[in-house]
Amino acid sequence: MSESNNQNPQTILELTNVHTFYGKIEALKGISFSIQEGEIIALLGANGAGKSTSLKSIVGLTPPRNGRISFYGKDIRGMKPENLVEEGIIMVPEGRRIFPALTVMENLKMGAYQRNDKNGIEDDIEYIFTLFPILKSRHKQDGGTLSGGEQQMLAISRGLMGRPRLLLLDEPSLGLAPIIIRIIFDTIKKINIEQKTTILLVEQNANLALMVAHHAHIMTTGTIIHSGTAQEIMKDETVRKAYLG
Amino acid sequence: MSINHSKETHYPAKESFLSSFFRSLTEEIKAALVATLWFCFLTLPLVCFRINANTQKIDYLWERLPKVAIIAFVATLIWRFLRKRLSFSHVKDTLDEVSGPPPDEARGPGGSWVTYLMAAKHKKLYAILALAFLVTIPFWVSPYVVMILITALIYICLGLGLNIVVGVSGLLNLGYVAFYAIGAYTYALLNHSFGLSFWICLPLGALTATTLGLLLGLPILRLSGDYLAIVTLGFGEIIRLVLTNANFTNGPSGIGGIAPPGLFGINLNATVKPFLVNLHLMHKDMDLNKVLIFFIMLLMVILTIICVFRLENSRLGRAWLALREDEVACQAMGINRTKAKLTAFAIGSTWAGLAGVVFASQITFINPSNFTFMQSVMILSIVVLGGMGSIPGVIVGAIVLTLLPEYLRGFANYRMLLFGLLMVLMMVFRPGGLIQSTRQVYIHKPLENKEP
After folding, report:
1. Which among B111, B27, B104, B37 is positioned nearest to B70, based on CA atoms?
2. How far is CA B348 from the centre of its chain?
3. How confident is the model at residue B86 (pLDDT cuts 50, 70, 90)?
4. Residue B418 DSSP symbol
5. Which residues lie across from A44 on neighbouring strands?
6. Between A and B, how many residue pairs show a Cβ–Cβ distance under 8 A?
7. Beta strand pairing status for A89-92 and A74-75?
8. Pick from A61, A85, A140: which is nearest to B333 by CB?
9. Does ipTM exceed 0.90?
10. Where are the domains of chain A?
């Protein structure tokens, strides 16, 4: 599935030896990986492996202490989250975090906070309603009244409203019913194919993530211990047994 | 949609409401009597006992009791009637939703006159009528009433300003009065020392308040919740203490002889007033300068309402609401937290500054005791009582909290007690405020077109 994307690969994001600390605790012990344009990359691993921290380090919520993060060749380490959104790096945070008191429509508009192209925003809302028709029928409702799955759809949609060049998804399957998870992951794949959006996916549910991802990195305790294409990792019994369960 | 069809399905509701109310009339009266009894019992010490300062004894004023009882009884009945009507209309609304809303035409004179009168197409007309009424007020009331109304309008302005900070953005500011004081003192000092006019000082006062809001906001907006409240409380006190102790502000004795706003240099009281009084168009003791301030305040309140409404429904307003809810998500959306919060804080301060300038010109003499912590509490109460984030709520709150004390002068000693009681009752019965805030709903246009 990844053949068409890999014909002319351009590295868009590159992490080199990134270290991030929470106080004295070293959460990322020098991780390095890169993402090609149009790919879906999965970061897998158990709790506390540093997957979410990697995402937060990229978007500047937990600025790394050293190392280099470059986006389209530009050093972005230490940049503020709002400036990174401008660059086109958008994160869908863990646990959905939609705005419960704003309506679905307003939530979507918040996603387009930095955009000024009114028509483009309208078009994107239209596109999102084709991705998740349920949101269309709920567009007048307050975000807080949606179910967990709908909230996750809204969170992803809100991220898309910023027209990301790189979309970071933090645990999109968290706490959702299997059938909803399926819809969400189908849509993730669809977004990647239709919009050519590069996606970095953090997931605990490895099998699910490997089904949509092109490449995957497996993390334990702040380091990447194994990398490969999704098929390789799927086939590699030892890796699967040792780290993915 | 067929008009005839909806006529039959929607109107019986109204008939049955009235008849059901009257059917249960005896029950309603019983309930109202019980409420009256309780009310009389609870307010007995307030209403009937008074300490006579001359004789050092308690006067018993039993003749007041029946009056209170009748008022309480009627009020309870009206309250119950309205409550019932409200719950009834909810039921009706849900019915409407199920069977599709009736078209506007169907709600003609034959239909529910309330819904007819409330129809959106009349809103403009009502606004104009209300405005016309407000404009005529100074021509048939006493000077005292005009003074009270100016105060009420100033508090509406202050309430709406603080509403942006507290109600919409969720930044608890307990030192709001400091910016009010800064506005007032800006005008007083500039007028006193340099003879600058009201119209020059109005923007200057606003600018000073905004600048100070920005300067204060910059370091403290990384705090939130209780900590922010404490720091702003401290700021309010610092400003008051500076005003009390500094030389240039004339200390506790304050600044007097502040000029009222002029109108192209016309002496209104000498030229226009005799003319109006002769025509019996104005109270003979009316100060036309105050009338001018009334009109200035009226205009300012209208402009404030428009500004605040536009702000709340703008991208920035949504960002404020979103920041109140989830800061991390806001950052992920690319909102600059500091910038958004600072804007809210500074814009709120601007209105306090504007109101302060008008206040100084209204009472012509200001001293630091005009700007105590109690004032901040008062403005905050307006926002909370009226409904956080709700424009009509804040207006009603301001009117209630400024007019009630004036008309309850007889209860002056118990004012704070009543205040407290009112607040407690509010929190129990209407935790969202008198008029809860409702967000403007954005309707997805293409969807509407596709609906049959």
Report:
1. B37
2. 15
3. low
4. H
5. A203, A218
6. 87
7. unpaired
8. A85
9. no
10. 11-97+163-244
